[in-house]
Specification:
binds dinuclear copper ion; Immunoglobulin-like; 7 helices; 33% helix; five-stranded mixed sheet; Cytochrome Bc1 Complex, Chain D, domain 2
């Protein structure tokens, strides 16, 4: 199961890995041989032709055509072989087979989001075994680089354009996925996993995953939506102000709007703020939030509200870690 693992490389996990390894080891061993040959000859000549007592310097031999052709010809052939292997490998990596299964990738500081054909969005990349998978990638901010060492796949993700890559996984289980382009302080947090499912189980996984809101408790589902729907980029959960107001202690409290009105943040206010963000804008913030209209279902909106409630001293006490059943909703005190 760990084919191809060496001091230099992790085990191979995709069909493309073998070609990459072949090129790598070819260049590597050619370099090792020439290093040994050149350093060995150098040491030998230094000793053999060192200056000796009473020996006068000798005239250098003029020309030796066969020798010169040999030392020029062999490296030229080797370099052309390397070029051919590299070029062929690069073209193979850049050309997804027709009909490959497409997953969209969004890279942003500092996480990955993977969007599946049925609309499901996940923080890990789930793929079926032994099926060509094509990734259509974009970046929201700076240059990132999609890198799966076991697949030997690395492709920059560049803002303002789409880049593509593809692979065909040959090994079930988890593979590490990294960002290989320094993209700021959180660069090393851009870790995710590729999870390779047996072909027969993939469809079921995708269906279940897409329905996570109905399978998880509303607050857990809300926490997950908070991350994958992009809320986390503007709204903190620890009380710090970001591009938007924090979610901490919002629910159940009065908030001052631009214009001076005071609004009690209850379920209706939170729902309205997601569907029609410009209706009530919190003082001190710009009206730049995109609407959730068409992007989130009522069920999902309710889940986010439940999650926001768990972040408030006046809401649901705390979110249970991972339960499948519904949370016990607390009846809160009478409010003015
Ligand atoms: Cu993204 Cu480094």
């Amino acid at each position: 199961m760990t084919v191809g693992r060496s001091f230099w490389m992790p085990a191979r996990g995709s069909t493309g890995a073998e070609g990459v390894d072949r090129s790598f080891y070819f260049v590597f061993w050619v370099s090792v041989c020439f290093f040994a040959l050149i350093v060995g000859l150098m040491v030998f000549f230094v000793v053999r032709y060192r200056r000796r007592e009473g020996a006068a310097p000798q005239a250098s031999p003029s020309q030796n055509l066969p020798l010169e052709l040999t030392w020029a010809g062999i490296p030229v052939i080797l370099v052309f072989v390397m070029f051919y292997m590299g070029m062929k490998g690069m073209v193979d990596l850049a050309t997804p087979p027709a009909g490959a299964y497409e997953i969209k990738v969004l890279a942003k500081r500092w996480s990955w989001l993977f969007e599946y054909p049925n609309g499901h969005v996940d923080q890990d990349l789930h793929v079926p075994l032994d099926v060509p998978v094509q990734l259509l990638m974009r970046s929201e901010d700076v240059i990132h680089s999609f890198y799966v060492p076991t697949f030997r796949v690395k492709q920059d993700v560049v803002p303002g354009r789409y880049t593509k890559t593809w692979f065909r996984a040959t090994k079930e289980g988890e593979h590490l996925l990294l960002c290989a382009e320094y993209c700021g302080t959180g660069h090393s947090d851009m870790l995710a996993h590729v999870i390779v499912h047996p072909a027969g189980e993939y469809r079921q996984w995708l269906e279940d995953a897409a329905n996570f809101v109905s399978r998880m408790s509303p607050a857990d589902a809300g926490r997950r939506l908070y991350r994958i729907q992009g809320c986390a980029q503007c709204h903190s959960v620890d009380g710090k102000s970001g591009i938007g107001p924090t979610f901490r202690n919002v629910y159940g409290y009065e908030t001052v709007m631009a214009g001076g009105a005071r609004v009690l943040a209850d379920e209706n206010y939170l729902r309205e703020s997601m569907l029609n963000p410009n209706a009530k804008v919190v003082a001190g913030f710009d009206a730049i939030m995109p609407t959730a209209q068409g992007r989130m279902s009522e069920e999902q909106i309710l889940a986010v509200i439940e999650y926001i409630k768990t972040l408030s001293d006046r809401g649901t006490p705390s979110a249970p870690e991972t339960t499948s059943g519904p949370t016990t909703t607390q009846v809160s005190d009478e409010r003015p």
